[in-house]
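Re: [ENG-882] Designed sequences occasionally contain unexpected residues at chain ends

Forwarding the minimal case from QA. Structure tokens:
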């Protein structure tokens, strides 16, 4: 595997942690990021009997990550940064989903299978812009899941870390100097923090508008159509406020992640 793989796997192993079996996690029993069904398939392919994923060996973990994830997304053929962002998405949400986020960001057919067309497009693309687009699409997908209320905070932090580290990899591949790298990453952090601040201000504005329209209106004097329109407008403001809250949190997580990677690049 190419040089970025060890760095990518370090990040993935930190994100995945060890044993877990959360009742709301559709993946079920998981150890080091490997779910039971994937482990069962792996052992069957080796002619071995099933056993709890809690007993998985380090050698098995490494082989599964390489053969079931890295090889399937053609990790070694993807540009630096794009490789890690795609791999982490595949591990977290499945190979097909991880591939689709890349393909959508590149503007090619999103069939969930990385072939020559995707590889060629990735090689020609702006790696930094592609990574950011992938992570934005990933966050949009995750926010739509019913279990986001349970796992959303962790997912948001994870995607932000992956984006920041992947952008750093892409910058390094472009030949940025060790002196300029932390400066560039810190600039990304500042921009994200400003976006978070603006979103927070928007939340306050939309919340005030919704409250004002609700309290100040004499509903008894409104006709049926007028009532429907006002209710719709108030609901729209609430939806906007929720969106801005998510945006503020996402941008805040991005700001923290870029700052952390910048600090690491300085050390």
């Amino acid at each position: 595997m190419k040089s970025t793989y060890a760095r990518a796997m370090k990040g993935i192993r930190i994100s995945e942690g060890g044993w877990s079996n959360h009742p709301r996690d559709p993946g079920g029993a998981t150890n080091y990021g490997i779910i039971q069904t994937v482990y069962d398939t792996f052992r069957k392919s080796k002619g071995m009997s099933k056993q709890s994923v809690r007993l998985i060996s380090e050698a098995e973990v490494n082989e599964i990550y390489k053969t079931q994830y890295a090889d399937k997304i053609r990790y070694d053929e993807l540009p630096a940064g794009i490789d890690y962002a795609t791999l982490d998405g595949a591990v977290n949400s499945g190979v097909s989903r991880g591939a689709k986020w890349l393909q959508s960001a590149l503007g090619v057919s999103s069939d969930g299978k990385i072939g020559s067309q995707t590889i060629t497009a990735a090689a020609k693309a702006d790696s930094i812009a592609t990574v950011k687009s992938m992570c934005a699409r990933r966050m949009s997908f995750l926010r739509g899941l019913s279990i986001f209320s349970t796992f959303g905070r962790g997912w948001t932090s994870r995607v932000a870390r992956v984006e920041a580290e992947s952008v750093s990899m892409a910058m390094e591949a472009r030949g940025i100097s060790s002196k300029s790298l932390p400066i560039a990453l810190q600039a990304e952090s500042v921009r994200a923090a400003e976006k978070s601040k603006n979103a927070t201000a928007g939340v306050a504005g939309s919340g005030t508008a919704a409250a004002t329209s609700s309290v100040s209106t004499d509903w008894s004097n409104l006709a049926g159509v007028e009532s429907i329109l006002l209710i719709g407008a108030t609901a729209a403001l609430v939806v906007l406020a929720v969106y801005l809250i998510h945006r503020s949190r996402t941008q805040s997580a991005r700001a923290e992640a870029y700052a952390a990677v910048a600090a690491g690049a300085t050390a």
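QA comment: On inspection the terminal residues look reasonable. The CA atoms of residues 85 and 162 lie 6 Å apart. Proposing we downgrade this to a documentation issue.
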